[in-house]
Structures are given as C-alpha cells and as structure tokens.
Amino acid sequence: MTRFSCAAQWLRRGGMALWVVGLSLLGWALAATLVSRHYQARQERAFFIDIERDPATEPSADPLVLGRIEIPRVGVTAMVREGDDDATLAIAVGHISGTALPGERGNMVLAGHRDSFFRGLRDIRRRDVIRIVTPELSYEYVVDSTEIVGPEATRVLDPTSGTVLTLVTCYPFKYVGHAPNRFIVRASLVAPLPAAASGGDVPRASGDLRSSERTQR
Predict the structure, then answer these.
(1) Residue 10 has what pLDDT?
(2) Residue 49: what pLDDT?
(3) SS (H, E, C) 56-104
(4) Which of 31, 134, 159, 209 has the most C-beta neighbours closer than 10 Å?
(5) Among 28-32, 40-44, 136-140, which is the least confidently predicted range?
(6) Domain-wise residue ranges, the chain
(7) Cα-only R_g, the chain
(8) What is the distance between the alpha carbons of residues 30 and 3, in angstroms, rounded to a whole number?
(9) The domain at 63-213 falls in which architecture?
(10) Is 175 helix (H, G, I), strand (E, B) or coil?
C-alpha cells in the first residue's frame, strides 16, 4: 500500500467518524427537543385542570411547577419549574431557588435558554407585558429595562424592596457555543387578577449567575 493510499484511507475513516458524531449529536438534540415539548404539553394540560379543580383535590401538575410565563408580543409561552439545573432548564423555564415567588414582594428570578424558551427575549423592549400565571392568580408585570452583564454580575439576583421580576438568559443570542454574557430583563408588578377557568387565554391583570451559567446555552 502506498503512502498516498494509506492517507486516503485514514481520511475516509475520519470522514465517516465525523458523520457518526454529527448524526449522534443531531439525534441527541432531536430527542431533547421532543422530551421538552412533551413535558411542556403535559404540564400545560395539567395546569388548566388545576385551575378548575376543587381545592380539596390533589393538584395534577408536577409539584415543582410554579405556573406559566407569557410574553405575548414576543411569542414567549412556557411552564415555569423550580430550579435552575441542567435537567430543569432542558424542559422548562427555571425559577432560581431562594428568590421571590410569583406575586411575592422581592425579586423573582427566572432563567431560560436563549435558543429555546427565551429565544423571543431578543425582541423584548421596555413597556412589554409579562404575565406569570398560577392556578390561583395571573400576575402582570411591565418591563422597565434590559441590560447586558457579565456572568459575575450576581447583583441581578439580589432581593428588592418592590415586587420585581428578573429574566436571565445567555447573550449574544446568535453566539455559537457557551455565550460569554448574560441578557437581563427587569419588570415590575402591576396587579394580580384571578386566573382563567379554561384552557387557552388567561385574563390580563390591569395595568449566582455563575450557578445558572452551566445550565444556559
């Protein structure tokens, strides 16, 4: 066998190996997407069942599900689950433990992937409406500001005196790989209203980033 034919053979083998790796990654991504969609659809159905259920009966939804986030103008709708680990952010928007709960005074912080649930944040702007819907109440927030910070800017997780919602995702949105910065949305509570008693639309109300860095792409 000549040196040229030997090199060509190794190139062919290398090419086949790359194809196998590429197909494996594609299969993994597809499987992850299907799991995420299935979880979201199942929890959304359970969510609307819980809105209508007798308070004396057990909830249908995952006990870690807090509610649903809706940002109508940019097309964001996703179930919100407690936690910001890899497993949680793969299937839902995550509530960072230790921060305020929906409608509670203080800073409620939610994290999500820029290439899935929080993709629409690239188009968000001041005065946009954000709703956090629970089986009991629909909390409406209005966007006050957006900013780009480094992963060390843990101040965005700090408690606040007012009722504030903070959304965190990676930035830039089109960056390939682990993005170097964080995109922050800050919004203030307007008022709560009772949640809808049917699926579909919910009535509008009037009016350590490093720990989540490993879970955001």
Answers:
(1) 58
(2) 83
(3) CCCCCCCCCEEEEEEEHHHCEEEEEEECCCHHHHCCCEEECCCCCCCCC
(4) 209
(5) 28-32
(6) 63-213
(7) 21
(8) 41
(9) Beta Barrel (2.40)
(10) coil
